[in-house]
Amino acid sequence: MQNLVTLNLTRNLIVHLPSAIGLLSNLTHLIMNSNPLRSIIPPHIWNLKKLRTLHLRNCQLNSSIPPYIGKLKSLVNLHLSSNMLLGPIPSSITNLTNLQSLLLSFNMLVGPIPSSVNNLTNLASLVLYGNQLNGSIPQEIGRLTNLITLDLSFNMLVGPIPSNLGNLSSLVYLDLYTNKINGSIPLEIRNLKRLTNLDLGANDLSGQIPSFLGLLPNMSLLWLDSNLFEGFIPLDIGKSKNLTLLFLSDNKLTGSIPSSLCYLTNLLWLFLDRNLLH
Prior knowledge:
Subcellular location: Membrane
Strand content: 15-25%
Number of strands: 21
Domain Disease resistance R13L4/SHOC-2-like LRR: 44-155
Helix content: under 10%
Membrane topology: Single-pass membrane protein
Radius of gyration: 21 Å
Number of helices: 0
Distance between the termini: 71 Å
Protein name: Disease resistance R13L4/SHOC-2-like LRR domain-containing protein
Strand order of the largest sheet: 1-2-3-4-6-8-10-12-14-16-18-20
CATH architecture of the largest domain: Alpha-Beta Horseshoe
Largest sheet: 12 strands, parallel
Number of domains: 2
Keywords: Glycoprotein, Leucine-rich repeat, Membrane, Repeat, Signal, Transmembrane, Transmembrane helix
C-alpha cells in the first residue's frame, strides 16, 4: 500500500492508529472523522510529508495540539473540530504556509490567537468558534487577503475590531458573535463588498450603527443584537436590497422605525425588540 494517496476511515471504532501508517509516504489525504481515538494526535502522522488533508473531527482527542503539527508543511486542509483539545494554539501551526482551511472549532483552546497567523497567506477559511480564546483580535489577520470565512464566535476575545479587517476584500462571512469586543464598528468595514453575513451580536460594541452597512451590496444576514448601540436606525439600511435578516434586538436604539425598511423586499426576519424605539 505504499502508493496509497487517500485513506478515509470515517465513522468507525478505531481507538489507535497503527504505527505503520507513517510508512505511507505518498499519502496526501487522511480522513478519520468520528472515531474514538481519545488520546493525543497519533505521532506517526508527522512522517507523512506529502499530507495535504488531515481531518480528525469528532475523535474525542483530549490533549493539546502538538507543536510537531508544524512539520506537515504540505497541509492544505486541517480540521480538528469537535474534540476536547486543550491549551493554546501552537505557534508552529503558522508554519503551514500552504493551509487554505483551518478548522479548530468546538474545543477548549485557550490563550490568544497567534500573531504569526499572518504567515498563512493562502488561508481561505479560519474557523475558531466555540473555544475559550482570549486577548484581542490580532491586527495581522488583516493581512490574510484570501480569507473568505472568518469565524471567531463564542470565545472571550476583547478589544476593538481591527480596522484593517477592511483589507479582506474577498471576505464573505464574518462572525464575531458572543465575545467581549468593544468600541465602534470601524469605517473600513465598508470595503467588504462581498460580505453576505456579518454577525457582531452579543458583544460590547457601542456608538451609532453606521449607515454604510446598508450600502454593502451583497449583505444578506446582519446581526447587531445584544450590544450597546444607540441613536437612530440608519435610513440607508433600507438600501440593502438583498437583506433577509436584520437583528437589532437588545440595544439602546431610539427614535422611530424608519419607513425605508419597507423597501427591503427580501426581508424575512426583522427583530427590533428590547430597544427604546417609539
